[in-house]
Specification:
single chain, mainly alpha, 13 helices, 79% helix
Amino acid sequence: MALLSSLVPEGEVSIPEFLFVLVAILVSAKLLGELAERLGQPAVLGELLAGVVVGVSGLRVVDPTLPILQLLAELGVILLLFEIGLETDLRRLLRVGGESALVALAGVALPFALGYGIARGVGLPTLPALVAGAALTATSVGITARVLSDLRRLQDPEGQIILGAAVIDDVIGLVILATVAELVGGARVTPAGVARTAAAAFGFLALAVLAGRLVVPPLFARLARLGRPDTLATMALALAFLLAYLAHGAGSAVIIGAFAAGLVLARTPQAGTIARGVAHLGHFFVPIFFVAV
């Protein structure tokens, strides 16, 4: 049932056709997600399998390269990391910071070294071998966070270590990829330049959380007195999108900015109201991300 060619001619799709694509994504994600949970697995496993079924490897109903689908998927993972941030206690996360850093460094260093070593071993030049090693450092903090959330292990000490490591991994991976991209482009890479890139990426997260804890709680306390609950959720989303935008500008990942916004809001009295409002949007956008992946 190869519907892809008729649904997305030349990379374009009409509104009715795109609505059909959304139906295929949401129905398959929900059904296979429920099935995965009944089998004792995280729902995200079923959603990923749904992507295989309706995507280019299966029924070819969904073309993940559609720009509009990529945009919705990106919104999905931003919302997911914002939700995870709202559920995360920053103090508990910091308590396992040392363990998380060790896990993250091992999770980056070993794949990079093995990828580079094997690539060199089969005869690739140094630069392609570096690219291969850098590619293997890439992780998905979105999938990590969702699995822990589905299994209800996010608040366990092990879950906090894994989540912290995934966030650090993501930032380190971006630094490595940025450095390798400069090498491929012919630029001269220096230790000082790498240190500046890393400082910008990690510094943004620290600065966003510290500044946010000073500014955000009184601001949202005032909003809670003046506005309705849906206003709180809307303004919280605006904060998440703003920090995601600023994170990208600082050389970090947009999802790190959204996660930072969640961390800042998690300790406010309005966190529960905000989380309930955001969850409704997440039910729509988050499955799109996992199916598109």
